[in-house]
């Protein structure tokens, strides 16, 4: 009996972690490879064509996140696989049409590409949340978007430089290479068993949310959620900027035409984030883990600011600087997309699911990403990518420390009030 349970636990960990990792890794092949192309000399309405493509995709992705607040929070388990298949096929079709249609008007296809991909994260995470092993499962899942972005860019760059695929067809070809592994991973993900009774006791049962549930939760936690979203908006904007303009940033610090740097620079980040966040899985108390994440945010933002300062003064090499700020950003970004809100649901015994909170943060996060792109193009057009990025990192470090501290104070007070009310109610019942 004991061996059977242990075998089932390891089967869930291995199958769930690998299937979710591979599926979301493959998703990035439909979203990010185009950013390794330069599209030099193409201007549309006075804007660099690459920025037009990024904005188009981000608008679609952002809209999908806002739609996902309702769709993901009310998602039924039986519909997950169908949604994922439709979304990935629409994403690939949009890339094929991007290669076929005349330029620069084909930019509109990236809107539909982003629109189809924006809800995939929430659907995949819904397979994993609300389990006592959610930390381990979600950390492996989250590691996919750290390493996959660089990996698929390397594939895209290789297709252009080695096989001479044009920069307009490279995104569709890269996506096509990952269709079969995406479907295979989805098949394994569908085989995962639902959360057990023990999972529900430890992490609170997760259930679809109706309009009244969403309104009630927002009403109770509006202020701390607003503070957290402000931090996440800045975090997403800078994380996306580093991702979308990685070629420009790496070129500016001396790594021109280095095919492997997009991948091998992300590997230590992935390993460090995996190990660090994996330690949170050892913390059984949901409240203590939730508080711990706030201190992680503060320390990570401090690292971002200090690493940038050392790099600016010549005390840190370009490679180690990019790794340090990447680690600092992902050490915050990964929890926000998974285990931070999962622990929050469990600690405060909320009626709902983590997907709802994740998509509230994500929708505004990509709004911030779009704002940064527009500001860089129209407000700071003469500043280099590197200088703009460094200035933004200092701002992120300061903002992250302040908002994390405020959130910690607000939520700790709320948790104390809830515990006090529970104690009073129990005393009156016993009396």
Structure in words:
This protein has 431 residues and is mostly helical. The chain has one domain (9-191, 209-420): Up-down Bundle (Growth Hormone, Chain: A). The protein has 18 helices and two strands. A two-stranded antiparallel sheet has the order 1-2. A hairpin with a 2-residue loop joins strand 1 (43-44) and strand 2 (47-48). Helix 2 (49-73) runs antiparallel to helix 17 (354-379), helix 5 runs antiparallel to helix 17 (354-379) and helix 13 packs across helix 15 (318-336). The longest helix is centred in the C-terminal third of the chain and has 46 residues, at 385-430. The protein is globular. The two termini are 42 Å apart. The relative contact order is 0.13.
Essential attributes:
431 residues, mainly alpha, Growth Hormone, Chain: A, globular, disordered C terminus
Elements, N to C (H/E):
HEEHHHHHHHHHHHHHHHHH
Shape summary: globular
SS summary, helix count? 18
Cα-to-Cα separation, first versus last residue: 42 Å
- Low-confidence spans: 424-431
The CATH C-level class name: Mainly Alpha
Helix content: over 70%
Specify the CATH architecture.
Answer: Up-down Bundle
Structural class: mainly alpha
């Amino acid at each position: 009996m004991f061996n059977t349970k242990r075998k089932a636990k390891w089967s869930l960990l291995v199958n769930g972690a690998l299937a979710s990792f591979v599926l979301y890794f493959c998703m990035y092949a439909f979203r990010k490879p185009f950013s390794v192309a330069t599209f030099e000399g193409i201007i549309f309405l006075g804007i660099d064509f690459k920025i037009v493509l990024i904005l188009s995709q981000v608008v679609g992705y952002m809209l999908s996140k806002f739609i996902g607040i309702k769709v993901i929070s009310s998602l039924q388990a039986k519909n997950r696989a169908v949604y994922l298949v439709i979304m990935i096929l629409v994403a690939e079709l949009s890339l094929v049409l991007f290669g076929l249609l005349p330029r620069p008007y084909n930019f509109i296809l990236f809107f539909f590409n982003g629109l189809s991909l924006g809800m995939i994260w929430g659907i995949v995470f819904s397979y994993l949340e609300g389990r006592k092993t959610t930390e381990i499962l979600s950390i492996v899942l989250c590691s996919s978007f750290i390493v996959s972005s660089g990996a698929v860019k390397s594939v895209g760059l290789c297709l252009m430089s080695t096989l001479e695929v044009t920069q307009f067809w490279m995104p569709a070809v890269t996506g096509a290479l990952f269709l079969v592994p995406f479907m295979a991973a989805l098949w394994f993900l569908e085989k995962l068993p639902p959360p057990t009774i023990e999972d529900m006791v430890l992490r609170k049962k997760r259930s679809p949310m109706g309009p009244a549930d969403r309104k009630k939760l927002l009403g109770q936690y509006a202020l701390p959620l607003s503070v957290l979203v402000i931090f996440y908006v800045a975090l997403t904007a800078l994380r996306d900027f580093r991702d979308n303009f990685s070629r420009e940033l790496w070129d500016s610090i001396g790594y021109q035409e280095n095919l492997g740097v997009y991948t091998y620079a992300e590997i230590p980040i992935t390993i460090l984030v995996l190990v660090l966040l994996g330690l949170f899985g050892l913390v059984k108390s949901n409240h203590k883990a939730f508080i711990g994440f706030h201190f992680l945010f503060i320390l990570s933002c401090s690292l971002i600011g200090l690493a940038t300062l050392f790099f600016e003064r010549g005390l840190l090499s370009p490679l180690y600087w990019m790794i340090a700020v990447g680690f600092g950003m992902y050490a915050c970004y990964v929890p926000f997309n998974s285990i931070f809100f999962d622990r929050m649901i469990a600690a405060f015994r909320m009626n709902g699911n983590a997907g709802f909170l994740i998509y509230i943060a994500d929708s505004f996060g990509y709004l911030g990403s779009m704002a940064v792109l527009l500001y860089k193009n129209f407000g700071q057009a003469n500043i280099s990518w590197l200088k703009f990025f460094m200035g933004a990192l200092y701002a992120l470090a300061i903002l992250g420390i302040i908002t994390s501290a405020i959130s910690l104070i607000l939520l700790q007070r709320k948790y104390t009030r809830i515990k006090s009310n529970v104690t009073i109610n129990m005393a009156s019942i016993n009396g």
